């Protein structure tokens, strides 16, 4: 069973994601912010991370930058309302594999997790990224 770390300060959003993903036989570990998530990563081995950006204590940008150094082999997907070109490009620099604008469908997130773990995701060059027109970005 794959273990997914959900990081979002909104308990309601985190709960919806967790509830949706457990139906796909995924084990869910949760954190309220990036700092708490780093503690979780010290304790648990996870197969992927789903990350919000706007959070207190340690935001998603700082967390993604830190994990790109400490845990570069763990795939990170962003699920955030900060769905603008600057956010997408910044997360791309930190090695994020996909960017979903909130609210994203659980089926889309799960499909991306499957692609990543099968190695079937494609890289889209940065010059093809147009921040106004996306459901999610594939990096």
Please explain how this structure is put together.
By secondary structure, this protein is α/β, with parallel strands linked by helices. It contains five helices and six strands. Helix 2 packs parallel to helix 3 (60-70). It is globular, with a radius of gyration of 14 Å. The two termini are 25 Å apart.
Helix and strand topology:
Elements: E1 3-7, H1 11-22, E2 27-31, H2 34-43, E3 48-51, H3 60-70, E4 76-80, H4 85-93, E5 98-101, H5 106-118, E6 136-138
Parallel strand pairs: 1-2, 1-3, 3-4, 4-5
Antiparallel strand pairs: 5-6
Helix pairs in contact: 2-3
β content, as a range?
15-25%
Number of strands: 6
Give the class from helix and strand content and strand pairing: alpha/beta
Number of helices: 5
Describe the largest sheet.
6 strands, mixed
| CATH class bucket | Alpha Beta
Concise summary:
The chain has 139 residues and is an alpha/beta fold. It has helices spanning 11-22, 34-43, 60-70, 85-93, 106-118, and strands at residues 3-7, 27-31, 48-51, 76-80, 98-101, 136-138. Helices cover 40% and strands 19% of the residues.
Task: Kindly list the characteristics that best describe this protein.
single chain; 139 residues; alpha/beta; Rossmann fold
């Amino acid at each position: 069973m794959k273990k997914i770390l959900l990081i979002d300060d909104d308990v309601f959003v985190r709960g919806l994601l967790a509830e949706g993903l457990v139906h796909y036989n995924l084990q869910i570990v949760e954190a309220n912010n990036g700092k708490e998530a780093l503690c979780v990563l010290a304790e648990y081995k996870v197969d992927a991370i789903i990350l919000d950006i706007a959070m207190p204590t340690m935001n998603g940008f700082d967390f993604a930058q830190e994990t790109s150094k400490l845990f570069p082999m763990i795939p990170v997907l962003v699920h955030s309302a900060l769905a603008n070109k600057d956010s997408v490009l910044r997360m791309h620099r930190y090695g994020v594999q996909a960017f979903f604008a909130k609210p994203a469908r659980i089926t889309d997130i799960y499909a991306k997790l499957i692609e990543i773990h099968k190695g079937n995701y494609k890289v889209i060059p940065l010059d093809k990224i147009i921040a106004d027109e996306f459901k999610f970005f594939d990096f």
